[in-house]
UniProtKB/TrEMBL annotation:
Annotated organism of origin: Paenibacillus auburnensis
Annotated GO MF terms: ATP binding
Top-level taxon in the UniProt lineage: Bacteria
UniProt keyword terms in alphabetical order: ATP-binding, Nucleotide-binding, Transport
PANTHER family: ALIPHATIC SULFONATES IMPORT ATP-BINDING PROTEIN SSUB (PTHR42788:SF13), TAURINE IMPORT ATP-BINDING PROTEIN-RELATED (PTHR42788)
Annotated gene: tauB_2
InterPro entries: AAA+_ATPase (IPR003593), ABC_transporter-like_ATP-bd (IPR003439), ABC_transporter-like_CS (IPR017871), ABC_transporter_ATP-bind (IPR050166), P-loop_NTPase (IPR027417)
Domain ABC transporter residue range list: 9-240
Protein name listed in UniProt: Taurine import ATP-binding protein TauB
Residue ranges the record marks as coiled coil: none
SMART domains in UniProt: AAA
Length: 258
């Protein structure tokens, strides 16, 4: 089948070399069906953030093709929600204002002010931060800013969602609570989500497939099917035999390729 007819996100022969001559991504070929969560792990410097930046349209130079349902990913009809590592919130705007700006820029909710306000209220509530609407980002904790960044990404109702280690700064209990909240929200709006994490457990708890980037740019990428764990109740995943087996598989790949 020609790549232009494959549904979902199709990454073909993607290669990124920064101006410094630094090869950030060897050659990436991935076909990711629409409405899935794909977790990405890899050693530091393996190109995880670079992959998200290329899809988000933040890299001027790359070679290869990025298609979503047959159209170039950077087509103006395709909305991409990004949760960057530093949350990317505008410090001079309130929480409400940050989400409002993102919706205006992307044209989400059209020009309908009532619809926009309803959506902002909905996504702030769903992330458990309705009471923070009038606060400024710098007055919030790291965990609260992460929730705002995720609410903002959902509020534009993107087809593609890119999350770069969104829970990295959190303690274990808050992290687990946010993983559950993220999954619930994703079920309400199942975008095609790429979720970078350093945490092997998190990759298994959240991903339908787990993409493992190698340390060497010439080595191949491993993609593990994780449907068995993904289909379980969230609270039952960690204690399951499938979770344990998946951990072993990932450790093996890490020993071979990291
Ligand atoms: N703006 C840049 N200019 C030059 N080289 C860069 C730039 N950004 C990243 N790199 C290099 O590209 C490679 C991949 O970086 P990237 O940030 O994508 O890795 P990563 O897997 O996300 O790492 P980490 O887990 O540490 O966040 C690294 O060798 C990095 O030094």
């Amino acid at each position: 089948m020609s790549s232009s007819r494959i549904s979902g996100l199709c990454i073909q022969e993607l290669q990124v070399e920064y101006k410094s001559g630094q090869v950030a991504l060897g050659q990436v070929n991935l076909t990711l069906p629409e409405h899935g969560i794909y977790t990405i792990i890899g050693p530091s410097g393996s190109g995880k953030s670079t992959l998200l930046r290329a899809i988000a349209g933040l890299l001027p130079n790359y070679t290869g093709e990025l298609l979503f349902n047959g159209k170039p990913v950077h087509d103006k009809d395709i909305l991409v929600g990004l949760v960057p590592q530093n949350y990317g919130l505008l410090p001079w705007k309130t929480v409400h204002g940050n989400i409002q700006v993102a919706m205006k820029i992307t044209g989400a909710a059209g020009g309908d002010k009532a619809e926009r306000e309803a959506r902002i209220t909905h996504w702030l509530s769903s992330m458990g931060i309705a009471d923070l609407a009038d606060r400024y980002p710098l007055s919030l904790s790291g965990g609260q800013q992460q929730r705002v960044a995720i609410a903002r990404a959902f509020a534009i109702l993107p087809q593609i969602m890119l999350l770069d280690e969104p829970f990295s700064a959190l303690d274990a209990v808050t992290r687990e609570a946010l993983q559950q909240i993220f999954l619930d929200n994703w079920l309400a709006h199942p975008a095609t989500a790429l979720f970078v994490t350093h945490d092997v457990d998190e990759a298994i708890l959240l991903g339908q497939r787990i993409i493992i980037l190698p340390a060497g740019k010439a080595d191949s990428i491993e993609v593990l099917d994780n449907a068995a764990v993904f289909g379980m109740k969230h609270e039952e995943k960690r204690g399951s035999n499938e979770f344990f087996e998946q951990t072993k598989r990932i450790r093996k790949v890490m020993q071979e390729k990291w």
